[in-house]
Design brief:
By secondary structure, this protein is of the alpha+beta class. It is built from 19 helices and 9 strands.
């Protein structure tokens, strides 16, 4: 009928006209006619197909409606030239179905107002065009980067959002993402669940199988957060803005500054580079853990369904997938099928980190020992006890051999982890911490 670009133009014009008033055949015909110089002969059939497909006005999906109209036009035949668009209609977008109690934000303007921004400031911070990829100066970027070296893996980028963007991401986290429930199998970054609740599910089992997802945050492309926000009810334009505020691309100059990888890491290095060059969840943003966990809901659903077929239990803490079951658990088959499901869901299992742990071995899940019950690893407990003894005898500066900043807070965090697993041992370590003189020499 018409070429693709003409169909897209006509589809967008008609979608806006259709959404600008009453959702009836007569009203759609009237506004559709007003959009053009004269009423094209195919308008009535198009209106009827739209009404058959959409019983209510899809005010949260104007782009979808425009694409549908363009598709309907592609199936029509006419020798007449395309009508000229005469009038551009405006319409009020609306929230879609809201399965969770998230705040209503129907337009990018309303989102900017919620965040206390001008619309231009919102669009700059969202960077939907990916300008950060080629930003020559750090002052023009929204993130500061640090690269963590990892043995046997490419460096991991830590992208710390700057102050204003970080505040916005925290609003998105607490006002929106915290109200969207995670899958029952997800224990990381979920209120009321923790590494301990994850480990406890696998305590006292004859076989524990651990798998690790490769580059968890980088593997979550912008498409997944977009559909999370759309499923929450946000119109297309708002979902795009929210997604852009929570995703980024690594600046080219940052990636190219890394040294060449060793040959054995070249393939994985290249794969990570491709992921980082497209919008993805930045590790370091407040929103990324929650969005990554929600993005893995399909993976959790399928693995939780797989586990009972092999008499196993499944749970996930961030990128740590854990199964447990009887002595005769078919671990090889489980690993192969789970890895294929992960690939289907857009993730990759890191083979080097896959472990099958039997009851005669030390079974660790997220740092906790689970052979009989959830407990702290004796080696970790002894190491902490030795550090605290050193600090009490020789002073904190001497005991801090690794040069850890905020050494006391660091030790307190480790002691709190021990206490969550073994309150008695945690209390002993706290007593030792209180016996350390933390006043600087001469203070």
């Amino acid at each position: 009928m018409y070429d693709p670009s003409t169909r897209r133009e006509l589809g967008a014009a008609l979608a806006a006209a259709f959404l600008a008033g009453a959702w009836t055949e007569r009203a759609l015909l009237r506004r559709g006619s007003q959009a053009f110089d004269g009423r094209p002969p195919w308008l009535l059939p198009v209106v009827r197909e739209v009404l058959a497909a959409y019983h209510r006005p899809p005010a949260d999906r104007p782009r979808e409606l425009a694409a549908y109209v363009a598709l309907v036009l592609s199936e029509r035949r006419t020798a007449l030239p395309a009508p000229r668009v005469r009038k551009a209609f405006g319409f009020e977008p609306a929230m879609g179905r809201m399965p969770w109690p998230v705040p209503e934000v129907a337009s990018p303007g309303a989102l900017a107002e919620r965040l206390g921004l001008e619309i231009g400031q919102l669009l700059w911070l969202a960077d939907a065009r990916g300008l950060e990829r080629d930003a020559p100066s750090r002052r023009l970027r929204h993130y500061d980067y640090e690269w963590l070296r990892r043995p046997g893996a490419p460096p991991r980028p830590i992208a710390a959002p700057k102050r204003r963007l970080k505040a916005i991401q925290r609003w998105i986290l607490h006002e929106i993402l915290d109200r969207i429930p995670a899958h029952d199998a997800a224990h990381g970054f979920v209120r009321g669940r923790s590494a301990r609740t994850h480990a406890a599910l696998h305590a006292g089992r004859a076989t524990v199988v651990r798998l690790d997802l490769e580059d968890f945050f980088a593997a979550v492309s912008a498409r997944r957060p977009y559909w999370i926000f759309r499923t929450a009810g946000y119109p297309e334009a708002v979902a795009h803005c929210l997604t852009a505020l929570c995703t980024t691309v690594v600046p080219r100059i940052e990636w190219e500054s890394l040294p060449a990888p060793p040959p054995e890491l070249a393939t994985r290095h290249s794969r990570l580079g491709r992921r980082l060059a497209t919008p993805h969840l930045p590790q370091g943003a407040p929103t990324s853990p929650a969005l990554a966990s929600l993005a893995a809901t399909g993976l959790d659903r399928r693995l939780a369904g797989l586990a009972p077929t092999m008499a196993a239990t499944y749970s996930r803490y961030a990128d740590d997938l854990t199964f447990s079951g009887p002595r005769d658990l078919p671990a090889r088959t489980l690993i192969r099928v789970a890895a294929q499901i992960a690939r289907d869901e857009g993730f990759a299992v890191a083979p080097a980190k896959t472990r099958v742990l039997r009851s005669h071995e030390r079974q660790r899940v997220c740092g906790a020992v689970v052979n009989e019950r959830v407990n702290v690893d004796r080696r970790e407990y002894d190491a902490l006890k030795a550090i605290l003894h050193d600090a009490a005898v020789n002073g904190p500066a001497a005991a801090n051999r690794a040069g850890v900043p905020e050494f006391r807070a660091h030790l307190l965090g480790r002691i709190s982890w021990v206490a969550s697993l073994n309150p008695r041992r945690g209390a002993r370590l706290r007593e030792r911490l209180e016996g350390v003189d933390w006043e600087p020499a001469g203070g």
